[in-house]
Structure prediction request, 251 residues.
Amino acid sequence: MKDNFSKYGEIYDFFYFDKNYMKEARHLNELIKKNLEIGTANLSILDVGCGTGGYAQHLNKYYKITGIDLSKEMIKIANNKNLKNCKFYEGDGTQYISSKKYDIVISMFHVVNYQITKIQFNKFIRNAFLNLKPGGIFIFDFWNSPATLIDPPESKIKIVSSVNELLLRHTLPRRFSKNRIDIKFDFYRIKYGHNKIKSFSETHKIRTLDKSAITQLATKNFKLVELNKAFYFKPLTAKDWHGLAVFKKLS
Ligand SMILES: C[S@@+](CC[C@H](N)C(=O)[O-])C[C@H]1O[C@@H](n2cnc3c(N)ncnc32)[C@H](O)[C@@H]1O
Prediction:
Protein backbone atom coordinates (compact mmCIF):
# COMPACT_ATOMS: atom_id res chain seq x y z
CA MET A 1 0.00 0.00 0.00
CA LYS A 2 1.07 3.59 -0.57
CA ASP A 3 2.73 5.47 2.29
CA ASN A 4 0.70 8.71 2.52
CA PHE A 5 2.70 10.06 5.41
CA SER A 6 6.29 10.17 4.09
CA LYS A 7 6.60 13.97 4.30
CA TYR A 8 3.84 14.55 6.84
CA GLY A 9 5.66 12.31 9.34
CA GLU A 10 8.44 14.79 9.97
CA ILE A 11 6.04 17.52 11.14
CA TYR A 12 3.27 15.24 12.50
CA ASP A 13 3.84 15.71 16.25
CA PHE A 14 4.37 19.46 15.89
CA PHE A 15 1.21 19.79 13.85
CA TYR A 16 -0.98 17.71 16.20
CA PHE A 17 0.40 19.18 19.45
CA ASP A 18 -3.22 20.03 20.33
CA LYS A 19 -4.65 16.51 19.92
CA ASN A 20 -5.54 15.24 23.35
CA TYR A 21 -4.05 11.73 23.10
CA MET A 22 -3.96 11.46 26.89
CA LYS A 23 -7.73 11.95 27.28
CA GLU A 24 -8.52 9.72 24.32
CA ALA A 25 -6.18 6.98 25.60
CA ARG A 26 -7.99 7.19 28.96
CA HIS A 27 -11.27 6.55 27.13
CA LEU A 28 -9.72 3.56 25.30
CA ASN A 29 -8.62 2.20 28.66
CA GLU A 30 -12.21 2.52 29.95
CA LEU A 31 -13.53 0.73 26.86
CA ILE A 32 -10.98 -2.05 27.39
CA LYS A 33 -11.91 -2.47 31.06
CA LYS A 34 -15.61 -2.52 30.17
CA ASN A 35 -15.40 -5.03 27.32
CA LEU A 36 -12.53 -7.32 28.27
CA GLU A 37 -13.63 -9.56 31.10
CA ILE A 38 -10.21 -10.92 32.07
CA GLY A 39 -8.73 -8.06 34.12
CA THR A 40 -6.16 -5.67 32.71
CA ALA A 41 -2.86 -6.99 34.12
CA ASN A 42 -0.11 -7.93 31.60
CA LEU A 43 -2.25 -7.39 28.55
CA SER A 44 -0.86 -6.82 25.08
CA ILE A 45 -1.98 -4.33 22.43
CA LEU A 46 -1.32 -4.36 18.71
CA ASP A 47 -1.61 -0.76 17.48
CA VAL A 48 -2.20 -0.88 13.71
CA GLY A 49 -1.36 2.45 12.05
CA CYS A 50 0.41 3.54 15.26
CA GLY A 51 1.92 6.64 13.62
CA THR A 52 4.43 8.32 15.92
CA GLY A 53 3.08 6.46 18.96
CA GLY A 54 0.59 9.11 20.15
CA TYR A 55 -1.73 6.60 21.85
CA ALA A 56 1.04 4.17 22.80
CA GLN A 57 2.82 6.80 24.88
CA HIS A 58 -0.19 6.97 27.21
CA LEU A 59 -1.33 3.33 27.10
CA ASN A 60 2.13 1.94 27.86
CA LYS A 61 1.57 2.52 31.59
CA TYR A 62 -0.90 -0.35 31.55
CA TYR A 63 -0.16 -2.46 28.46
CA LYS A 64 2.67 -3.94 26.39
CA ILE A 65 2.38 -2.39 22.95
CA THR A 66 3.49 -3.43 19.49
CA GLY A 67 2.87 -0.77 16.88
CA ILE A 68 2.97 -1.18 13.14
CA ASP A 69 2.66 1.49 10.47
CA LEU A 70 3.08 1.73 6.71
CA SER A 71 5.18 4.86 7.09
CA LYS A 72 8.91 4.40 7.66
CA GLU A 73 9.18 8.01 8.82
CA MET A 74 6.40 7.66 11.43
CA ILE A 75 8.00 4.46 12.77
CA LYS A 76 11.42 6.10 12.98
CA ILE A 77 9.97 8.94 15.07
CA ALA A 78 8.01 6.52 17.29
CA ASN A 79 11.16 4.45 17.95
CA ASN A 80 13.24 7.56 18.67
CA LYS A 81 10.91 8.29 21.60
CA ASN A 82 12.22 5.15 23.37
CA LEU A 83 8.86 4.55 25.03
CA LYS A 84 8.89 1.85 27.70
CA ASN A 85 6.83 -1.30 26.95
CA CYS A 86 6.60 -0.30 23.27
CA LYS A 87 8.05 -1.68 20.05
CA PHE A 88 7.33 -0.19 16.63
CA TYR A 89 7.83 -1.76 13.21
CA GLU A 90 7.08 -0.95 9.61
CA GLY A 91 4.10 -3.05 8.56
CA ASP A 92 0.89 -3.06 6.60
CA GLY A 93 -2.36 -3.86 8.42
CA THR A 94 -3.77 -5.39 5.22
CA GLN A 95 -0.90 -7.95 5.21
CA TYR A 96 0.24 -8.35 8.80
CA ILE A 97 -0.64 -11.62 10.50
CA SER A 98 1.37 -12.10 13.67
CA SER A 99 2.35 -15.47 15.12
CA LYS A 100 1.73 -13.91 18.56
CA LYS A 101 -1.91 -13.14 19.34
CA TYR A 102 -2.94 -9.98 21.20
CA ASP A 103 -5.53 -9.21 23.87
CA ILE A 104 -6.42 -5.94 22.17
CA VAL A 105 -5.99 -4.51 18.67
CA ILE A 106 -6.47 -0.75 18.22
CA SER A 107 -6.46 1.32 15.06
CA MET A 108 -6.96 4.96 15.89
CA PHE A 109 -7.29 8.35 14.21
CA HIS A 110 -9.28 6.96 11.30
CA VAL A 111 -6.62 4.55 10.01
CA VAL A 112 -9.43 2.31 8.70
CA ASN A 113 -10.60 5.13 6.39
CA TYR A 114 -7.27 4.87 4.54
CA GLN A 115 -8.23 1.36 3.38
CA ILE A 116 -9.97 2.72 0.33
CA THR A 117 -10.89 -0.41 -1.57
CA LYS A 118 -13.32 -2.94 -0.22
CA ILE A 119 -10.63 -5.62 -0.58
CA GLN A 120 -8.07 -3.62 1.44
CA PHE A 121 -10.67 -2.78 4.09
CA ASN A 122 -11.83 -6.39 4.42
CA LYS A 123 -8.25 -7.68 4.68
CA PHE A 124 -7.45 -5.04 7.29
CA ILE A 125 -10.44 -6.09 9.43
CA ARG A 126 -9.83 -9.82 8.89
CA ASN A 127 -6.21 -9.44 10.03
CA ALA A 128 -7.26 -7.54 13.16
CA PHE A 129 -9.54 -10.49 13.95
CA LEU A 130 -6.76 -13.03 13.24
CA ASN A 131 -4.28 -11.11 15.41
CA LEU A 132 -6.61 -11.25 18.43
CA LYS A 133 -6.79 -13.90 21.14
CA PRO A 134 -10.24 -15.40 21.74
CA GLY A 135 -12.09 -12.99 24.04
CA GLY A 136 -9.95 -10.12 22.74
CA ILE A 137 -11.28 -6.81 21.42
CA PHE A 138 -10.66 -4.63 18.37
CA ILE A 139 -11.22 -0.87 18.77
CA PHE A 140 -11.17 1.54 15.85
CA ASP A 141 -12.51 4.98 15.03
CA PHE A 142 -13.71 6.25 11.67
CA TRP A 143 -15.27 9.06 9.64
CA ASN A 144 -19.02 8.52 9.56
CA SER A 145 -20.44 8.92 5.99
CA PRO A 146 -23.89 10.44 6.80
CA ALA A 147 -22.37 13.22 8.92
CA THR A 148 -19.87 14.08 6.16
CA LEU A 149 -22.85 14.47 3.79
CA ILE A 150 -24.88 16.63 6.20
CA ASP A 151 -21.85 18.73 7.13
CA PRO A 152 -19.32 18.28 4.30
CA PRO A 153 -15.59 18.76 4.88
CA GLU A 154 -14.52 22.23 3.81
CA SER A 155 -11.39 23.94 2.68
CA LYS A 156 -9.60 25.23 5.78
CA ILE A 157 -6.32 26.54 7.13
CA LYS A 158 -4.53 25.56 10.34
CA ILE A 159 -1.45 27.36 11.59
CA VAL A 160 0.84 26.15 14.35
CA SER A 161 3.95 27.91 15.55
CA SER A 162 6.82 27.56 17.97
CA VAL A 163 9.66 29.92 18.87
CA ASN A 164 11.61 28.59 15.85
CA GLU A 165 9.09 28.06 13.12
CA LEU A 166 5.61 28.44 11.71
CA LEU A 167 3.68 25.77 9.87
CA LEU A 168 0.58 26.39 7.78
CA ARG A 169 -1.61 23.64 6.37
CA HIS A 170 -4.23 24.27 3.75
CA THR A 171 -6.79 21.45 3.44
CA LEU A 172 -8.73 21.01 0.24
CA PRO A 173 -11.30 18.18 0.15
CA ARG A 174 -12.69 16.77 -3.07
CA ARG A 175 -15.63 14.40 -2.94
CA PHE A 176 -15.97 11.59 -5.51
CA SER A 177 -18.94 9.70 -4.17
CA LYS A 178 -21.00 9.19 -1.03
CA ASN A 179 -18.08 7.52 0.70
CA ARG A 180 -14.94 8.59 -1.21
CA ILE A 181 -13.14 11.85 -0.52
CA ASP A 182 -9.63 12.97 -1.45
CA ILE A 183 -8.06 15.41 0.97
CA LYS A 184 -5.24 17.47 -0.48
CA PHE A 185 -2.92 19.00 2.09
CA ASP A 186 -0.56 21.82 1.16
CA PHE A 187 2.04 22.57 3.82
CA TYR A 188 4.14 25.71 4.11
CA ARG A 189 6.95 25.71 6.64
CA ILE A 190 8.78 28.88 7.61
CA LYS A 191 11.86 28.69 9.83
CA TYR A 192 12.44 32.03 11.49
CA GLY A 193 15.74 33.67 10.57
CA HIS A 194 15.82 31.90 7.18
CA ASN A 195 14.39 33.69 4.18
CA LYS A 196 12.86 30.54 2.80
CA ILE A 197 9.45 28.92 2.76
CA LYS A 198 9.53 25.14 2.33
CA SER A 199 6.38 23.64 0.90
CA PHE A 200 5.06 20.19 0.09
CA SER A 201 1.73 18.57 -0.71
CA GLU A 202 0.15 15.22 0.06
CA THR A 203 -3.19 13.82 -1.04
CA HIS A 204 -4.89 11.44 1.36
CA LYS A 205 -7.52 9.14 -0.10
CA ILE A 206 -10.32 8.55 2.36
CA ARG A 207 -13.20 6.08 2.32
CA THR A 208 -15.87 7.03 4.85
CA LEU A 209 -17.94 4.35 6.59
CA ASP A 210 -21.46 4.14 7.94
CA LYS A 211 -23.39 2.11 10.50
CA SER A 212 -24.35 -0.52 7.98
CA ALA A 213 -20.74 -1.01 6.78
CA ILE A 214 -19.70 -1.47 10.41
CA THR A 215 -22.54 -3.78 11.46
CA GLN A 216 -21.90 -5.97 8.38
CA LEU A 217 -18.44 -6.81 9.76
CA ALA A 218 -19.99 -8.78 12.60
CA THR A 219 -19.99 -12.57 12.30
CA LYS A 220 -20.87 -15.43 14.61
CA ASN A 221 -17.38 -15.14 16.16
CA PHE A 222 -16.82 -11.41 15.87
CA LYS A 223 -19.44 -9.46 17.76
CA LEU A 224 -20.04 -5.71 17.58
CA VAL A 225 -20.21 -4.62 21.23
CA GLU A 226 -20.06 -0.81 20.93
CA LEU A 227 -20.88 1.60 18.10
CA ASN A 228 -20.51 5.07 19.59
CA LYS A 229 -19.83 8.69 18.98
CA ALA A 230 -16.05 8.62 19.29
CA PHE A 231 -14.77 9.05 22.85
CA TYR A 232 -18.27 9.13 24.38
CA PHE A 233 -20.41 6.34 25.77
CA LYS A 234 -23.26 7.48 23.46
CA PRO A 235 -24.65 5.61 20.44
CA LEU A 236 -23.47 6.93 17.07
CA THR A 237 -26.01 9.14 15.24
CA ALA A 238 -26.04 10.37 11.62
CA LYS A 239 -24.90 13.77 12.87
CA ASP A 240 -21.68 12.50 14.45
CA TRP A 241 -18.66 12.93 12.20
CA HIS A 242 -16.48 10.70 14.28
CA GLY A 243 -17.53 7.15 15.13
CA LEU A 244 -15.89 4.45 17.22
CA ALA A 245 -16.51 0.72 17.11
CA VAL A 246 -15.53 -2.12 19.43
CA PHE A 247 -15.65 -5.72 18.23
CA LYS A 248 -15.12 -8.77 20.40
CA LYS A 249 -13.64 -12.03 19.18
CA LEU A 250 -15.63 -14.87 20.66
CA SER A 251 -13.49 -17.80 19.50
C1 LIG B 1 -3.94 9.88 10.78
S1 LIG B 1 -2.57 8.82 11.03
C2 LIG B 1 -2.87 8.20 12.65
C3 LIG B 1 -1.61 7.75 13.35
C4 LIG B 1 -1.77 7.38 14.82
N1 LIG B 1 -2.70 6.27 15.01
C5 LIG B 1 -2.19 8.58 15.63
O1 LIG B 1 -3.28 8.53 16.19
O2 LIG B 1 -1.46 9.57 15.68
C6 LIG B 1 -2.97 7.42 10.03
C7 LIG B 1 -1.82 6.40 10.02
O3 LIG B 1 -2.29 5.19 9.47
C8 LIG B 1 -1.22 4.60 8.76
N2 LIG B 1 -1.80 3.57 7.88
C9 LIG B 1 -2.75 3.74 6.93
N3 LIG B 1 -3.04 2.54 6.35
C10 LIG B 1 -2.27 1.61 6.97
C11 LIG B 1 -2.11 0.22 6.83
N4 LIG B 1 -2.79 -0.49 5.92
N5 LIG B 1 -1.23 -0.42 7.64
C12 LIG B 1 -0.50 0.27 8.56
N6 LIG B 1 -0.60 1.60 8.72
C13 LIG B 1 -1.47 2.27 7.95
C14 LIG B 1 -0.55 5.80 8.08
O4 LIG B 1 0.75 5.51 7.63
C15 LIG B 1 -0.60 6.83 9.20
O5 LIG B 1 0.54 6.77 10.02
